[in-house]
């Protein structure tokens, strides 16, 4: 039990649609990161938020965006979905500069 | 560009024996290394970590070794148990500049058979 919960667990969307994934992390975890894990790959860093500000971004286009809220919840938004966006999306939170605790992930399928 | 590499996609070990999972990295700025274990339909679970100022860290049956000159680390599990069967990810971080961004390898599927 990591104290990080994600919703929904599974989602099917059509190409071109928009999706919002949600994450709730532990109280006091002021850093949240999002990762994309494609089939057969390791998790790839999308971006990180620290105290509600974006604090680093991986090699993902601007149609991937996020928000972090004061209550330690966060969102990942993806616009104009493409088939290659099908993946497991992982949220990870941590206090400050320690190991990250991952949620169970949201499996997104784009058809 | 894969900065963390796990070159063995799978490993099969008999229960009670040692499991050795290997990981190589290319970025000399990495100063913190972690191993995560992942079961199907679950998120990665933190297992053990090591700072670049150490060459060994031990936690129960799990030991991580770091060879900075070779840019290589390994995870030893002794004795291996069937419940250890999972995908193991090696991850690295440059805590000085990236505030905890993790770079992951592709994972190694460990199977421990009775």
Question: What would a concise description of this structure say?
Answer:
The complex is a heterodimer of chains A (111) and B (114). With 111 residues, chain A is mainly β. Chain A has strands at residues 5-7, 10-13, 19-24, 31-37, 44-50, 53-57, 64-68, 73-78, 87-94, 101-102, 106-110.
Helices and strands in order:
The complex is a heterodimer of chains A (111) and B (114).
Chain A: E1 5-7, E2 10-13, E3 19-24, E4 31-37, E5 44-50, E6 53-57, E7 64-68, E8 73-78, E9 87-94, E10 101-102, E11 106-110
Parallel strand pairs in A: 2-11
Antiparallel strand pairs in A: 1-3, 3-8, 4-5, 4-9, 5-6, 7-8, 9-10, 9-11
Chain B: E1 4-5, E2 10-14, E3 19-25, E4 32-38, E5 45-51, E6 56-59, E7 62-67, E8 72-77, E9 86-93, H1 95-98, E10 102-104, E11 108-113
Parallel strand pairs in B: 2-11
Antiparallel strand pairs in B: 1-3, 3-8, 4-5, 4-9, 6-7, 7-8, 9-10, 9-11
Describe the protein in words.
- The complex is a heterodimer of chains A (111) and B (114).
- Chain A is mostly beta strands and 111 residues long.
- Chain A is built from no helices and eleven strands.
- In chain A, strands 2, 4, 5, 6, 9, 10 and 11 form a seven-stranded mixed sheet that branches.
- In chain A, a hairpin with a 4-residue loop joins strand 7 (64-68) and strand 8 (73-78).
- Chain B is globular.
- In chain B, the strands form two sheets. In chain B, strands 2, 4, 5, 9, 10 and 11 form a six-stranded mixed sheet that branches. Chain B has a five-stranded antiparallel sheet with strand order 1-3-8-7-6, with no helix packed on it.
- Chains A and B meet through strand 4, strand 5, strand 9 and strand 10 of A and strand 5 and strand 10 of B.
